[in-house]
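ok so i was messing around last nite and threw this chain in just to see what happens. nothing serious, just curious
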Amino acid sequence: MTDPTDTRDTGPRVGTPLWAFLAGVTVIGFTALVVAMLRLDTTQLPELALTPLFWVLTVLVILGELRPVMVSSATAVGGTYPSAMFTFAVLLHYGLPVAVLMQAVAVAVNGVATRKAWHRVMFNVAQSTLALTAAAVVLGLFGIVPSAAAPWVPSGADLLAIALAGVAYFATRAMLVCGAVALHERRSIVRVLRVTVGPQSLVYAALLGLAPPVVVVMAHSPGLVPLFVAPLAAVYFTATLSMRRDHQALHDELTGLPNRKMLIVSTEEALAEARQDERVGLFLIDLDRFKEVNDTMGHPVGDRLLQMVAHRLTHSVRPGDVVARLGGDEFAVLLPSIRDAHAAREVAARLRAALTEPVRLEGMTFDLDGSVGIALHPDHAPDFEMLLQRADVAMYLAKEGRTGVELYQPDKDRNSPERLNLLGDLRRGLDNHELRLHYQPKVGLAGGAVAGVEALLRWRHPVHGAIAPSEFIPLAEQSYLMRHLTAYVIDEALEQAARWWHTGLQVQISVNISARDLLDSALPEQLEAGLARLRLPPASIQLEVTERILTGQQAYTHETIKALATLGVPLALDDFGTGYSSLIRLQRLAVSEVKIDASFVRRIAESEDDNRIVRSIVDLVRSLGLRSVAEGVESDEVALRLAEMGCDLGQGWLFGQPMPAADATAWLRERYEAAPEIGYGYRPEVTQTA
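result:
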């Protein structure tokens, strides 16, 4: 099972501690190998090579070196190779030269078969040679010096010597391999030993413990040696099943990356070992526009794209950093050791650069991007949960500001225990229908006819009283509740529209939705079902979005907007005028109404600049055949100026404050009864200015 986070084939830079360690071990190991080969009796080796047992052992050692016994997927060093049992048996029977020769050949074959880098192959040859040499030295202290000319067969009295030789063999390999891993991943060697020695010592005890019986069989019944493959296979498959269960519990099935559970364990270990002069960093990465790939190309292509993203991320971080997939298109990166915030930003920038490289799949090129949020320990949080939460806050800041990378900033964190409690109360409030819609009329500036009303959400908390929309709507936008809240508002607006339209008040209700809601494929289905169920025409409801939608190219091609146009539900642009670069794009989007931002409207009687801006917008909207609505009309002077400009409708306290449904109904009926010639209702003929 390939580990996508394995970067050990990347050669160390010359002069680094890892390079010095690998080079030193390799030189010493190959020196020991040469010395052992010089001690090999060249007259006995050809005779030994003519025996079937020699080739059986060679084949078993090579086969045992191809696949390791994996005890735990969390083991940093990796598995234990079954070849150790036969190599140790050869050491006991034929001595050091034959054992290191077989082991070196097996490691070389393994390197070719698994395409390991040359520096890893040479290091593995060296460290296994040194381990066998250490075991041979211990045996020599007991007067045991086997050779090809004088094979040795152990007896019960030799158990202590064999046990100590096995300990020397295991300790040497463990120290050398764990030292390399610790330097490669910039971890404490004590930590690496702690997480690897325990599981591997059990496997080595079983393998090396079987070596003496193998020697006895080699001496008396060589033809039975292959039978030892059976217990070895049992150990291998038992360990493999255990490892697979462990791997599935700690890794993501699609990408092979660590999952949230393993990320928690890795983060807690990093926090426990963090030094005072360094920091632990946690990144949260969310892919931008990934949903479009799934919707357009299907989930199989999306899955392959996620696998490519996982590969890019793991090869863009440093050795020892942990890349995890939390679910969907959300990834996390743990930096167990980072110097400061500037260094963390550099790593984040490298990750984003890797993500933005074009991806070629199914004959198409995809341009991905991602938003990265950074949180550091101890600067921002003391534990994993708080780190993840604050990295999430930073990631949303990066997404909202379109900056790509953001470091957690306490003054921009809109989350707090009180706000989290408020989020829970909001969910319960939606379930209990505590939220109500108030309605503010939109009145014709020329004739005074009511052309519609805007639905504005209000919430009276059972304990805290009235809560401003500016407090709970941004909270919902940052959570899973926004979609639920939008559906709630649309259903409430449709229900009220049905009560009005079926009693003769044909008043169009405008509902504010976010750009994300507008691109939700479920929106047209909800509207179509609601209109059919309540027997309403599409014109009974209008969707208002801010002009930010004009800045996204997908707004002009998205299937949801096309479906709304087919359904006949009109769109309106709210708060228009704050983004002049979008004016030329207005004609490309199918809207029926443009609402001029109140910040300009309120000052047209005082500021010539604002007066010119509003007049220009009104002229532009009229030229496109659309209806203009001025927001924030609070005085007769402003209303008269707007009417002179040719603005169609006004909305503001001059005409009416937002009212509960019952008051709005009474207001509409009273207005009609007082002046039936003006009337009310959705009238296409009064929405255009001649």
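not much to say yet. The two ends are 73 Å apart (CA to CA).
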